[in-house]
Amino acid sequence: MAPRTFWKGYLKLSLVTCPVAMMPATSEAGKLRFHTLNGKTGNRVMSQYVDAVTGKPVAEEDEIKGYPQGEDAHVMLEDDEIAAVALDSTRTIDIDMFVEADTIGWVWLDQPHYLMPSDKMGEEAFAVIRDAMAGTGTVGISRLVMYRRERAVMLAPRGKGIVLWTLRYGDEVRDDDAYFDAIEAEKPAARLMTLMRKLIAERTEDWAPEMVDDPVQERLRDIIATRKKGAKRKAKAKPKAPEGDNVIDIMEALRRSLAAEK
Q: How far, rounded to the nearest angstrom, does the alpha carbon of residue 130 sit from its chain's CA centroid?
């Protein structure tokens, strides 16, 4: 069964337009979900907004956004005032510009989505935009209202489709120079690099999705299955101290690692 469409609209580049559909490229549907319960009664716990001063519950229609400007003072904004500054259209991906594909660092990429033509009539226009980006090594930049916020997005060709990435805002990405500048620029010794390359070669494998399986989810499922059968909780095991000696010499550590690999 095909997944339900997450978003439908239009992809536009100048006068070239085609109808498209979009789906999130990732899913957390398989993750375990837990409810918060009252440990004494077993009943679910409900959350509710309360007034910080009076302690009384606040009705949903009385909730309003406020920007802090000092202690206990806010500039209040209505929802329609916030919505008024957003894009007029939430259903058109109008490509504003193109940039070299390798100039956008991975740290700017937020959430991936698959973009595809939503009907046969639009496939040719979609293919022209996709293949032109692939042929020129560029990605498209646009803006779109997603998840209730206006986002900058990047469109990158991938196979027969396009991957649309939401991009992080400029004030969300920290400058790496503040963290990496203090690292000494000395190059490692050639003999150390030779051994390290051998170690990497020993551990190099073809990529497979199984490499990023979540073992915690499987263990939790085992615990839940056991509890369903009425088994009691096991006593918490004490963590074991790491075995082996502390090898400080890098050359010796690499030699031992290669020996272990073989």
A: 23
Q: What are phi and psi of 157, to 5 degrees?
A: -65, 140
Give the pLDDT score at 32. Answer: 82
Q: Are 92 and 9 in contact (CB under 8 A)?
A: yes
| Cα 174 to Cα 178: distance, rounded to the nearest angstrom | 8
Give residues with Cβ within 8 angstroms of 216, minimum separation 6: none
Q: Which residue in this structure is represented by tokens 């997603």?
A: 146
Q: pLDDT for 232-262, tens place per residue?
A: 666 666 666 555 555 468 778 878 887 887 6
**Three-state secondary-structure class, residue 260:** helix
With H, G, I as helix, E, B as strand and everything else as coil, classify residue 100.
Answer: strand
Residue spans of the domains in the chain: they are: 7-28+86-172, 187-203+246-262
User: Could you identify the residue written with the tokens 């899913």?
Assistant: 27
User: Which has more pLDDT, 57 or 89?
Assistant: 57
Contact 98, 108 (CB under 8 A): no
Structure tokens at 47: 């959350």
Residue ranges in the chain assigned as alpha helix (H): 79-84, 123-136, 177-180, 190-203, 215-228, 250-261
Count the neighbouring beta carbons within 10 Å of the beta carbon of residue 133.
Answer: 20
- For residue 122, give every residue at least 6 positions away whose Cβ sits within 8 Å of its Cβ, in sequence order, or none: 18, 19, 20
Q: What fold characterizes domain 7-28+86-172?
A: Ku70; Chain: A; Domain 2 (2.40.290)
Output DSSP code: residue 13: E
